[in-house]
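Work Package 4 report. The design task specified in the project plan requires that, given a folded chain encoded as structure tokens, an amino acid be chosen for each position. We show below one input record used in the internal validation round.
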């Protein structure tokens, strides 16, 4: 079902470049000729009957090279089951409830589900095999304060201003259902840059660019490590613990390697601090 309190956000303007002109049309202003289209994004409740295939695809995207190490079928089922049980979690769609989601935010109760032999336990075993620091390890094992594992998954070109409402609605829904978690673990991924990669006129999320220019006029991205989701920087700034880990089956990197180097990320954050991070997200998107 749709969420009437936030059934749609204001239309987001998406730039779409026109096709390059033919030689006989000239090339004046060709590079700056950009048209705009409007896209309406709707927030929907998680729907086990519709969202499973897209959810599995988004899980594989985040697992990247390690996608064969985790059974995403059972994990997707559990995420959707928990969404129904907790009455919490949302998807973002553009073509009605029957369409595939572009992104979603969902929570799974770690203490309740960590012994699930088919779904969550294998995923937790995968995360724990990377030897996270003690606070994250204890939370993944269901020890200590009540913990929810957050799945923030989306297509990379989804507008960032759509994300704060997902977190805001999740917090409201969890409170209404009585599931007041003390802390959260956010699972995601990031990428590393050596500062040699050219932007080719594109920016990879919020990675800063250097002032250097190549012969073709393309800038270069600054060296460093970055989350794929820019809003996670607000969460990391308030997290109790952050842990990054290499992907187990990523191919060796060399000068001929294609694409950026990726890694997994886990962040442990108190519930009150997550609320502060959401406020920071909202402020940054104004």
């Amino acid at each position: 079902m749709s969420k009437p309190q936030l059934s749609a956000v204001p239309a987001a303007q998406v730039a779409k470049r026109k096709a390059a002109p033919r030689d006989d049309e000239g090339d004046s202003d060709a590079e700056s000729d950009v048209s705009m289209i409007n896209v309406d994004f709707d927030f929907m409740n998680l729907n086990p009957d519709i969202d499973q295939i897209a959810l599995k695809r988004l899980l594989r995207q985040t697992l990247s090279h390690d996608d064969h190490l985790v059974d995403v079928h059972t994990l997707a089922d559990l995420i959707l089951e928990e969404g129904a049980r907790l009455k919490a979690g949302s998807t973002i769609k553009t073509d009605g409830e029957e369409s595939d989601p572009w992104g979603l935010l969902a929570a799974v109760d770690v203490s309740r589900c960590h012994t699930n032999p088919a779904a969550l336990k294998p995923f937790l075993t995968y995360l724990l095999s990377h030897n996270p620091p003690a606070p994250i390890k204890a939370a993944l094992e269901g020890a200590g304060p009540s913990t929810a594992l957050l799945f923030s998954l989306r297509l990379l070109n989804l507008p960032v201003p759509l994300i704060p409402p997902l977190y805001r609605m999740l917090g409201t829904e969890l409170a209404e259902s009585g599931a007041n978690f003390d802390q959260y673990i956010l699972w995601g991924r990031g990428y590393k840059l050596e500062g040699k990669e050219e932007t080719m006129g594109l920016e990879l999320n919020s990675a800063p660019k250097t002032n250097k220019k190549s012969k073709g006029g393309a800038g270069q991205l600054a060296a460093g490590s970055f989350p794929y989701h820019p809003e996670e920087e607000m969460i990391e700034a308030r997290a109790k613990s952050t842990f990054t880990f290499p992907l187990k089956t990523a191919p060796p990197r060399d000068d001929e390697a294609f694409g950026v180097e990726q890694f997994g990320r886990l962040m442990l954050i108190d519930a009150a601090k997550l609320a502060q991070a959401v406020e920071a997200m909202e402020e940054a998107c104004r």
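The two ends are 28 Å apart (CA to CA). Validation will be extended to a larger panel in the next phase.
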